[in-house]
Amino acid sequence: MFARLGRLWRRARRQRWMSVAVENLATGARGVDVLPIDDLIRHEFGEGCPCGPKVELHHDQDGADVWIHVHASLDGREVREHAKAHA
Ligand SMILES: [Zn+2]
Which domain of life does the UniProt lineage start with (predicted)? Predict the structure, then answer.
């Protein structure tokens, strides 16, 4: 089990992205932010982030709305990762 966790963790580090579950306690709205790690700017949760995240609405297993905010990295790592995946 620990070996498997270690592999997942290494993969996450190589990808340099993390996803964080966020819940707005005032409204009960749930969301997930997908953020680049160690980017050139500090990202803020939600769609108000300066990077202009892509917003997608998903439905949880219990039918609840979950907003996914996919942030854009300012160092352009998506482009490199895409190129690598298709090399
Ligand atoms: Zn952002």
Answer: Bacteria
Look up the pTM and report it. Answer: 0.68
What element of type H or E holds 66? strand 65-70
Expressed as residue numbers, the domain containing 73 is: 2-85
Give ion ligand 1 contacts, CB < 5 A.
Answer: 43, 49, 51, 71
Mean pLDDT of 45-59: 93
Residue-wise pLDDT for 14-29, tens only, equals 668 999 998 888 888 8
49 alpha carbon to ligand 1 midpoint, in Å? Answer: 5
User: Measured between alpha carbons, how far is 62 from 25 in angstroms, rounded to an integer?
Assistant: 18
Structure-block tokens of residue 52 = 């202009």
Give SS3 for 61.
coil
**Cα of 2 from ligand 1 centre, angstroms:** 31
- Domain count within the chain: 1
DSSP three-state, residue 18: strand
